[in-house]
Design brief:
Largest sheet: 5 strands, antiparallel
Low-confidence stretches: none
CATH topology: Alpha-Beta Plaits
Radius of gyration: 14 Å
CATH architecture: 2-Layer Sandwich
Number of strands: 5
Number of domains: 1
Strand order of the largest sheet: 1-3-4-2-5
Distance between the termini: 26 Å
Shape: globular
Mean pLDDT: 94
Order of helices and strands: EEHEEHHEH
CATH class: Alpha Beta
Structural class: alpha+beta
Helix content: 25-40%
Length: 128
């Protein structure tokens, strides 16, 4: 399944830095995929209403049960507010038994480089 195209929610300024987050979310159980997909739709609705979101994308490799998210935010406070609000906060807890070793890569991105390049960002996470 190809990555969902970048979805923009706010204009970006080319000459400033923004906080970004790459998340690696591997599932350790095939039976968790329907639940994960249902939660993905809930979180996408939350993202659409999130204050401070510049944009996001999702890369899903269903055969290997590996999922990636990539988002850029106006500021760190907006990102933290999203993570702590429902449904995201509930989903993180509910999926714990179904997850393998997750990975999170916070980084800064120049406004002129939004949307971030998937492969470059994944490479930087692996090198960290």
């Amino acid at each position: 399944m190809p990555a969902l195209p970048w979805k923009s929610f706010a204009a970006r300024e080319g000459d400033r830095e923004y906080p970004a987050l790459l998340s690696y979310l591997p599932l350790n159980k095939w039976r968790a995929i329907p639940k994960f997909m249902r939660y993905t739709f809930e979180i996408r609705r939350q993202l659409a209403d999130s204050e401070g979101l510049i944009g996001y994308s999702l890369d899903a490799n269903v055969p290997s049960r590996e999922f990636w998210t990539l988002s850029v935010w106006e500021d760190e406070e907006s990102l933290q507010r999203f993570v702590q609000q429902m449904p995201h906060s509930r989903v993180m807890t509910d999926l714990l038994p179904d997850m393998g070793q997750t990975g999170f890569f916070p980084f800064k991105v120049d406004g002129s480089s939004i949307p971030p390049d998937w492969e470059d960002t994944k490479r930087r996470m692996r090198e960290r």
